[in-house]
Design goal:
Helix content is 56%, strand content 1%. The longest helix is centred in the C-terminal third of the chain and has 72 residues.
């Protein structure tokens, strides 16, 4: 055993001696680290059984000094010194060769610089076409005695243009004005008068030129008319017989001409946001309300009065109008806009246009300060007199007209309304008005209390939705029901639902749940429940309008479905009013399932029960009725006609919803007519159901009881012809015998074979940890393992770099501190030496 250990250690030492490390490291046993193994594996060669950590550490530090430390030193330093001397970075050249090459290049540069100024004698340099040699001789020197007296002086025009003096105000000097220069210069007043005279003269000349041009134009037009017939003479169509027809345009040419005449897109105004539109609408309503209050108090003027135009202090009053003020004062008369006087204003505008045509030439003058001061005083006065318009005084308004206007303003609806805080406030706000006025009040209330205008408006309008539903229910339960107002308020309810869907959902859910609980309580107490009133029917209709009924599950329409099914199966039918309400429920149920085509068994059973009420003989039936109908009983003959002869006087007309609330006292004939209308509506609903469910596989089986009742038991012979036609269409739509279907059986499956006992061979590629079963999983595990290893190695290197930089920073700080301490000590030493010398000199002087 001891021998084996010695052999193993001798092999390790030999490996260390053969390494490339320094001799002192190779001989030092403390620099060697031996990685011992737990067990030996045959055929596996080990590469890292012996290591030199000191050597590896020194190499890593030297590598960081060469790379990372240089980058750290050059950090945030843009300027670097690069030696661009020839051969500086060429290690193949010797220092003598470098010096020789540099000397040669320097001599070449110097020689090139000298040759730059060594010009050939044949070439001649020029400047603006003149030889530089001749210019240097200075042969064309001008004698100072030949200079003119005005040489080097500025002209009057140049002085006036560049150094003030009014530009063109001063008269230009000419060559013949030498005598005038000797006189005394004119004053400013004389110059201004001369300028005014000159401007008037130019104006007269322009007017004369315009008149002459107009006369020449008229003369030319007359002469042109006289010779026009000679130039081009067209024969009448009747005489043109030999002429060939013009060639028809090609389709391409027609399309090109059409494209030329197409309308081009015009830029439109920027689209405003909902907040901006709401703000503008509220401002408009507030303005109209303020105007209505003024008219109601008698403060507003009856007629529009033309206001005097403000004249600015800088106005030259020369007849030039930049932009006309065509605005009119808003006025009301008898509650309407006062638009009188428009024709008179148009006539005045025509007269003004004719007067402005004469003064168009005056607007082209130069309107400078001097000209507007004094030169155009006469013309300005004439223009002011021509353009001045005296405003007529408004006619006096009598007291009766004022009172009539006040009464009309009081009768108008206000334009602004506060949001009601309770249901009583809403009822007080809407009562006493018609349906259109109530709609207008709600519309203005929504606009004045838009959520974007104030923070508290959102909560107010959310409450308003619940108040409106309650108000609509009260309108439907009145005697008689005000259904016109209910229809008028539906758009406002829809608008609120779109603004606040969550609040609307909760409000409708609350009403549906309350109605369902009340129906359950009534059933528990009395054993049967009455049909829902008209307010609940209106609520179900509004629910179908506000929320989607085709969803498989919805927080509002699903409870409405359940309420409909509960009402159709548990509410007793004991009167004609109940039959009408049941038909309304069937219409609503059909509307709910019209898009989704969902089967509604309660709807079909209720229609079968209603048709059962028309049968007088209740024996030997081929169908079965379910709750809330009975086979025989007190209310099983509600739709049986009392007089079979009334069918001849019956006319088809829609059933009013008011009859569902309360049927007025009628004669027996009218009641039979009402029964026929109910039967007609029931058959129409059956027809719509057949059209809706005709694609179902069980269509014939579902409608087989209805077909049996219609075919064998319904007394259709005593009904009018429209009902008989409807009966015939339903029978044609329902097949006589249901189609035969194969019975349901289990699906045939392939027999499962017995388990085989063949061994499963799994190839093991990696020993130790399980690396997966398939090849892809093994590859993925291998890559994950490699990624983790590389990631850990990168973190290790980053930590080492950080520690290296920290050591370098610390060494820099310590070196700076040591240098500073050394300099401080030197200063202290020099000061102490000076102090000692000074004290020694002082002692010497004392002696």
């Amino acid at each position: 055993m001891m021998r084996k250990q010695q052999t193993f250690s001798r092999g390790l030492s030999d490996k260390v001696r053969k390494s490339k490390a320094a001799p002192e490291i190779q001989k030092n046993p403390f620099e060697v680290k031996i990685n011992r193994k737990k067990f030996d594996v045959l055929g596996r060669k080990s590469k890292h059984d012996v290591g030199l950590p000191g050597v590896s550490r020194s190499r890593a530090i030297q590598k960081r000094k060469d790379t990372l430390l240089k980058e750290f030193r050059l950090k945030d330093k843009n300027n670097t010194f690069i030696d661009r001397r020839f051969g500086e970075y060429d290690s193949k050249l010797t220092p003598e060769e470098k010096i020789l090459q540099r000397f040669t290049l320097e001599r070449q540069r110097t020689q090139d610089r000298k040759d730059m100024y060594n010009l050939n004698e044949e070439e001649e340099l020029t400047h603006y076409g003149q030889s530089l040699a001749e210019m240097e001789k200075m042969t064309d020197v001008i004698d100072s005695d030949s200079d003119s007296e005005e040489k080097g002086l500025l002209s009057a025009e140049l002085t006036a243009t560049h150094f003030g003096g009014g530009g063109g105000l001063l008269r230009k000097k000419s060559a013949g004005d030498d005598e005038e220069e000797e006189h005394k210069p004119r004053s400013r007043q004389e110059l201004i008068e001369e300028l005014i005279i000159k401007s008037k003269q130019e104006k007269r000349e322009r007017q004369t030129q315009k008149e002459e041009a107009q006369e020449l134009t008229e003369k030319l037009d007359q002469e042109w008319k006289s010779i026009q017939n000679l130039l081009a003479h067209k024969t009448p169509k009747a005489e043109r017989t030999d002429e060939t027809d013009k060639p028809k345009l090609d389709q391409y040419d027609m399309m090109v001409r059409e494209l030329g005449f197409e309308m081009k897109a015009q830029p439109s105004e920027k689209l405003k946001s909902a907040e901006e539109l709401a703000r503008e609408e509220r401002q408009r309503l507030q303005t109209l309300e303020a105007d209505r209050l003024k008219r109601m108090m008698g403060d507003a003027e009856e007629d529009a009065v033309q206001t005097n135009t403000h004249i600015s202090a800088d106005d030259m009053n020369d007849g030039f109008i930049l932009d006309g003020d065509d605005r009119k004062t808003l006025a009301y008369k008898d509650g309407k806009w006062n638009i009188e006087g428009e024709e008179e204003e148009k006539e005045d505008e025509d007269d003004d246009e004719e007067g402005e045509d004469d003064d168009e030439d005056d607007a082209d003058e130069d309107h400078c300060d001097l000209q507007s001061d004094e030169g155009s005083e006469d013309e300005d006065g004439q223009g002011a007199e021509e353009e001045q318009v005296c405003a007529e005084e408004p006619p006096a308004v009598s007291e009766e007209q004022k009172k009539a206007a006040q009464e009309a303003a009081k009768a108008e609806l206000p334009y602004t309304f506060p949001a009601p805080e309770s249901y009583s406030d809403l009822k007080q706000l809407l009562q006493g008005h018609g349906s259109e006025q109530q709609r207008l009040i709600l519309d203005r209330t929504l606009k004045c209390n838009h959520p974007s205008l104030s923070a508290g408006n959102k909560a107010k309008l959310q409450k308003l939705f619940g108040f409106l539903l309650e108000y609509v229910g009260d309108l439907a339960t009145q005697n008689p029901p005000d259904l016109r107002t209910v229809s008028a308020l539906i758009p406002q309810i829809c608008g609120l639902c779109q603004m606040f869907p969550e609040a609307a959902c909760k409000a409708v859910q609350t009403l549906l749940s309350d109605s369902g609980h009340s129906m359950e309580e009534t059933l528990e107490v009395k054993g049967r429940a009455p049909m829902p009133d008209l307010d609940m029917l209106v609520l179900l209709k509004i629910t179908a309008l506000l929320f989607p009924s085709s969803d498989f599950r919805h927080p509002v329409t699903t409870p409405a479905f359940l309420f409909l099914s509960q009402a159709l199966t548990r509410c007793a039918v004991v009167s004609l009013e109940d039959v009408c309400k049941g038909l309304v429920l069937c219409c609503l149920a059909l509307e709910y399932v019209s898009l989704s085509q969902r089967i509604f068994p309660e709807l079909l059973n209720f229609l079968l029960g209603l048709l059962h009420l028309t049968v007088s003989d209740k024996h030997n039936m081929g169908y079965t009725v379910v709750s809330p109908f009975r086979r025989q009983g007190k209310s099983c003959d509600l739709l049986v006609l009392k007089d079979p002869n009334v069918s001849h006087s019956w006319n088809r007309k829609p059933i009013s919803l008011q009859t569902a609330h309360r049927l007025p006292a009628q004669s027996p004939v009218e009641r039979d007519h009402y029964r026929l209308s109910l039967i007609d509506s029931c058959l129409d609903l059956v027809k719509r159901c057949t059209w809706l469910y005709k694609d179902l596989p069980s269509y014939a089986h579902i409608f087989q009881p209805i077909r049996a009742l219609l075919l064998k038991h319904l007394p259709v012979e005593g009904y009018p012809a429209p009902i008989q036609d409807l009966h015939r269409e339903i029978l044609d739509a329902i097949p006589e015998k249901p189609s035969q279907h194969a019975p349901l059986v289990f699906k045939k499956k392939k027999p499962i074979p017995l388990k085989l006992f063949t061994p499963k061979i799994v190839q093991i590629l990696d020993y130790g940890k399980k690396r997966g079963n398939t090849k892809e999983e093994k590859e993925r595990e291998r890559l994950k393992h490699k990624y983790k290893r590389e990631f850990k190695g990168a973190l290790r290197e980053i930590r080492k770099d950080t520690r290296f930089l920290a050591r370098e920073k610390l060494s820099d700080v310590m070196s700076r501190d040591a240098e500073r301490k050394r300099k401080v000590k030197e200063l202290y030493g020099s000061l102490a030496t000076q102090e000692g010398e000074w004290k020694a000199l002082k002692r010497k002087n004392r002696k």
